[in-house]
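Help needed: design a sequence for this.
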């Protein structure tokens, strides 16, 4: 890690582009400096119409830079790009994302982004219509493919009194993510799960109607994959039973499954040798009683779909578990979160029930972030505020680790 002037402080370039949310970058700057980070602010020319350079000059670790010719060095972009341990852009506007995705280098911020090998975090903020525009989403896909981390905007009040998706992520989430990416997160427990054998399930199961159609749900597998990656990072031997096409972290053994029946077989088998079992998957509760063996045709009329319940894998894992094995379930709720999670904790016989309100903004299915409450069989309750799914995974594993080695 680069240290500024040998001070040992991580060096972060804070890029600010021209959106109404630019004022929130001041809070990000202040909190990062308070957390012991050297912050070098780079504003676009137009961002100065929203926030003054004097505020950043007063709060940041060095003076604001805007143009390529602001400092004595004729090559400020390479100094910033090479010194950076991380570059964060908050807010990132439509225009900034397009220029970055296109490889443009027409001001100091885009030139620094192109000139750095450090990890980059972008935090878009814009009106809902702009956020939903295919050009914006395609640019973000391009950046993600190149390894850029994106904190998507949240829902709420936007400039001009509109309401919708597009609000800059909360400064506390941006700061927590920066610190986590710098390896300075709160919940780094490297090595505390050394040699622990863990099985994690992920993704939504697919229950066939016929060879071309199926019933499923919105689970992407991100939370389960994040758990498997975090457990591996902390030293566990991890098997991931997943229906998601997402890649698994290095060193994680993967069983790819499709239906609830496949997942049940894999989980019951893998759990036999496991110290910890985590059911983060969204198993379909119902499946067609009989799947067609050939494609159903519209010309045959609307079919009568008869459904039946799928096996409750978690409840079965609870019945079969060995003494000392730690069992963790998830509860996806849209109302009465605590009551329903506690009821599931008791009925399924688990040690921890991780409850998420999947109707809340940026929480649950397919988001990159989550907010959960971890209920313990001992009556304990740990709220985990909105953060990345990686950080939520670490918070859950902190509870698992405490159960494995009670102090
Ligand atoms: O995958 P992502 O897009 O990242 O989204 C994450 C998530 C929302 C899927 C995840 O955080 C989550 O909540 N997972 C559990 C979803 C769910 O099925 O919840 P449930 O309340 O319906 O089920 C309770 C528990 O029983 C879960 O642990 C589930 O895996 C398990 N179950 C449910 C039905 C069934 N037939 N067998 C099961 O084992």
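Sure. Designed sequence:
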């Amino acid at each position: 890690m680069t240290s500024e002037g040998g001070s040992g402080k991580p060096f972060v370039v804070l890029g600010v582009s021209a959106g109404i949310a630019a004022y929130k970058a001041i809070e990000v700057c202040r909190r990062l400096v308070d957390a012991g980070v050297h912050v070098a602010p780079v504003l676009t020319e137009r961002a100065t119409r929203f926030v003054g350079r004097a505020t950043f000059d007063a709060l940041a670790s060095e003076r604001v830079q805007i143009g390529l010719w602001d400092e004595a060095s004729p090559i400020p972009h390479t100094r910033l790009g090479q010194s950076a341990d991380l570059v964060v852009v908050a807010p990132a506007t439509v225009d900034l994302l397009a220029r970055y995705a296109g490889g443009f280098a027409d001001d100091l911020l885009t030139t620094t982004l192109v000139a750095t090998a450090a990890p980059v975090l972008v935090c878009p903020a814009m009106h809902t219509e702009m956020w939903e525009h295919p050009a914006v989403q395609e640019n973000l896909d391009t950046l993600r493919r190149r390894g850029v981390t994106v904190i998507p905007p949240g829902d709420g009040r936007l400039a001009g009194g509109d309401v919708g998706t597009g609000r800059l992520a909360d400064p506390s989430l941006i700061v927590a993510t920066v610190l986590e990416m710098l390896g300075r997160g709160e919940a780094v427990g490297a090595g505390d799960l050394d040699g622990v054998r863990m099985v994690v399930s992920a993704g939504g199961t697919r229950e066939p109607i016929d060879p071309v159609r199926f019933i499923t749900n919105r689970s992407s597998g991100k939370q389960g994959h994040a758990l498997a990656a975090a457990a591996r990072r902390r030293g566990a031997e991890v098997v991931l039973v997943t229906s998601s096409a997402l890649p698994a972290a290095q060193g994680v053994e993967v069983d790819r499954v499709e239906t609830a029946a496949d997942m049940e077989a894999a989980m019951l088998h893998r759990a036999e040798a496991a110290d910890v079992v985590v059911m983060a998957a969204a198993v379909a509760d119902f499946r067609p009683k009989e799947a067609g063996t050939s494609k159903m045709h519209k010309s045959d009329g609307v079919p009568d779909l008869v459904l039946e319940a799928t096996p409750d894998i978690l409840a079965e894992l609870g019945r079969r578990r060995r003494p000392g094995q730690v069992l963790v379930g998830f509860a996806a709720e849209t109302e009465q979160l605590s009551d329903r999670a506690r009821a599931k904790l008791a009925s399924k016989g688990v040690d921890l029930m991780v409850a998420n309100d999947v109707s809340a903004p940026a929480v649950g299915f397919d988001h990159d972030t989550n907010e959960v409450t971890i209920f313990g069989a001992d009556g304990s309750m740990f709220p985990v505020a909105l953060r990345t799914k990686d950080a939520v995974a670490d918070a859950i594993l902190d509870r698992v680790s405490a159960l494995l080695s009670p102090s």
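The mean pLDDT is 91.
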